[in-house]
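Bench notes, afternoon.
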Amino acid sequence: MSNLTYKKVLIVEDERDILQLVKHYIEKEGFRTVVATSGLEALKKVSEDKPDLVVLDLMLPELDGLEVCKRLRSAPGTAMLPIIMLTAKAEESDTIVGLELGADDYVTKPFSPKTLVARVKALLRRADRTPETDPDLYHYETLTMNLSRHEVSLGKQEVTLTTKEFGLLEHLLRHRGRVLTRDVLLNAVWGYDYHGTTRTVDVHIRRLKQKLPLLEEAIVSIKSLGYKLKDVDEPG
């Protein structure tokens, strides 16, 4: 039995039918579940039950999902708690805000329960992973990034990247499996004083894929949001 099946998932959803559906499918995979139907109850359950992951609906009574996410990320004890947001298509702008506040992933309603469970598993695997033994090294399949030497290699072949390409790749590797908006990438790599357009990110992503072919399918474009470097064992 996988160690993941001992993990506890908090489901925060005020629509009872959706809550029961999500609960059923997550428990079917062997996970333990805790439920909450409002934002304030969610914060209380996080404090009392110490879940390993939160499935968080955006539209909630008392306190909406964005505020819950913000409070969890601002508290040291829950700053790294994995969060998957449930959103409606009409809430796209709120989805972007949620990702910028620190949500790890999102699933749009209506959704396939199996897709949600796959995202839960992938996120828990990532959270459970042993950190790199050398903080200056990142590995992704046959790709290796050495921060201290400012080197990137594919197998035994060294690949030359520009400073911005190197910074963009580092940020994607550091946050693999997580959706990163174009604005987040711009601020992280180009800085808050950059006055260009978000198309700059698209151009650099395209160049990375050309120089590092294994990233062609590994870096996925999330429509209207940004990009994600898929985890190595993440479902497509």
